[in-house]
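so im writing up the methods section and need the NIL domain-containing protein record in one place, dumping it here so i stop losing it
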Amino acid sequence: MVLQNSNNIPSEQFDTSALSKELDLPTSPDDNRHTQVRIRVRIPKHYHEEPIISQLISQHGVTVNIAAALLSANARDDGWFDLELKGTSGQIRSALIYINDLDLEVWHDSNFQEESW
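--- predicted struct ---
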């Protein structure tokens, strides 16, 4: 599914359980090459008090850059984060599986250039 975001940039909603194929991440556990992926995540208001981004860093070893965010202080609405995840393919895969397990809506920015470091 291709969606238009607020900047009129096409992005794709995806199921992170199929992320290896969708993002073309190497599947070998011995592959230690670094890569990055840019995603947009919807955080439902019932998760506002949960340390989701902190868990991505501490439990999955990825570097997280918050490129943009929208989260109201009064927690009446869902929040959105535009995240750049950097790490090995395995770390990124693990982080995206964690996000999938939380059942969060995720969009992959199809125009963001994934690069090896």
